[in-house]
Amino acid sequence: MENKKNQVNQNSAPIGIFDSGVGGLTVAREVMRNIPLERIVYFGDTARVPYGSKSKETIVRYSRQIIRFLMTQGVKAIVVACNTASAFALEEVKKEIEIPIIGVVQPGAKVACAATRNKKIGVIGTEGTVRSQIYTKVIQEWDPKIEVIGKACPLFVPLVEEGWLKDPVTDEVAYRYLKEIKEKNIDTLILGCTHYPLLRSTVQKVMGENVTLVNPAYETALELKNLLYQHKLENRGDGGEKELKYQFFVSDAADKFKQFANSILPYDIETTKQINIEEF
Amino acid sequence: MENKKNQVNQNSAPIGIFDSGVGGLTVAREVMRNIPLERIVYFGDTARVPYGSKSKETIVRYSRQIIRFLMTQGVKAIVVACNTASAFALEEVKKEIEIPIIGVVQPGAKVACAATRNKKIGVIGTEGTVRSQIYTKVIQEWDPKIEVIGKACPLFVPLVEEGWLKDPVTDEVAYRYLKEIKEKNIDTLILGCTHYPLLRSTVQKVMGENVTLVNPAYETALELKNLLYQHKLENRGDGGEKELKYQFFVSDAADKFKQFANSILPYDIETTKQINIEEF
After folding, report:
1. pTM of the model
2. Looking at the structure, do residues B69 and B123 belong to the same domain, yes or no?
3. Which tens digits make up the pLDDT trace of B147-204?
4. Which one of A62, A151, A153, A173 makes the best mutation probe of the B interface by having the most chain B beta carbons within 10 Å?
5. A113 given a catalytic annotation
6. Looking at the partner chain, which of B55, B154, B161 has a beta carbon nearest the beta carbon of A162?
7. Same domain, B177 and B129
8. How many pairs of residues across A and B have Cβ atoms under 8 Å apart?
9. What is residue B130's three-state secondary structure?
10. Residue B115, burial from CB neighbour count under 10 angstroms (0-12, 13-18, 19+)
């Protein structure tokens, strides 16, 4: 009886999702769409955003603090919804916790491998993600014959945050960043930063219709669904209904976060709580 | 005797200069040029950059940590070489320390007041600086008749960090950001972010030759020189010669910082030390 009860409690526990800021909301959005019964505790590290230009050591320290915070919220599984943190910290922190944890890199890489026909995959992301060559490592573990061409696009995140999504400036920046990988004749392109799905139409226009764009946010939601099933951790909707379904925490500027979140989520956030993440 | 020795020690102590990252190096550069006998301890908070989009509360906490670190380095005076931190934290932290401390806002504002003829001053900066209206407050304390028009330019910092200083994309972004304040017929424009002097020629081109650009970094170096003289704290070059003249500390990614610093300073940085600022 006790075990069954604990199991129910565990099943109705939330998923912890974290990112350096607002970008991971594209992952939260896919979880809401694809596993609608699951509760979510989202943490955006808005005080220390961006992660893309920071060192591995710093990103590992930040990820540990955030995981300690998420554990205080009783999460049953964690999604590292940030490509940089997935690249730098996932392997380290995986050894240190007992609940399932996944990043966005493996699911995105797996689908790109399945999609490519000419075995040439492009990856765009922050400087940190591209320099880490994490997608190359993961992809070549599956198929060493696949060539992976990475390109950092540091202006994409500030352009998205400025709201210039369909804009001649963004078109020109995209054209310049993507020129090099376009000439390499890739047939599949991974949107290796959680902000980039918001630039999907610009990127598709520049790359042309024959290039398949892979959105790791979507693939991660499907992988999470599978993982919860394997661990018998799915929320069946039979407990915890009194709790808030989606909760949002940030390390700074909660109002600004809420505004951005409400512009991209299929759901209106009512409150966002600010915490001091350095205390965890 | 003892007093005289202490005075010599204090005179040969370094100036502490801090910024959210590399931007404050434009202030360090002006100090090197204009007060060449002074030693400098520079701290760039590269782990938590940018400050421009963060809240006042967070910026005050960060500034306190950095000042505690600079005090461990025996600095005799501090320059807050960051417009956002000058706007949000200077008044708070001034009460808490005994050595002289100045920011970049007052010196820039003072010179702009002297320069304007039609009493219309523009201020460009980060979102935090513009939203704080700090330049407006300071300028209108001196002359309530001056109209101050602010405009946030969030893409300027990433464009500078990307190195696109003379570039059609930067021209187009500048044209779009500055259109509004240009139409207001200002005759003086404050470059209210330490990165912006690096875009000086682009901004001058867009605004036209009749608009006077004010670089607070330069004005701050002159004000510092004056302040040291008033407090009898000038380095006369008669002590401490064995110490390193210029020292650089960062909270992350020391190599990248060094590379940027060497591209803008009239001097080659040899080493940059990384510290964990959250411990202070």
Report:
1. 0.84
2. no
3. 999 999 999 999 998 889 999 999 999 999 999 999 999 999 999 999 999 999 999 9
4. A173
5. no
6. B154
7. yes
8. 53
9. helix
10. middle
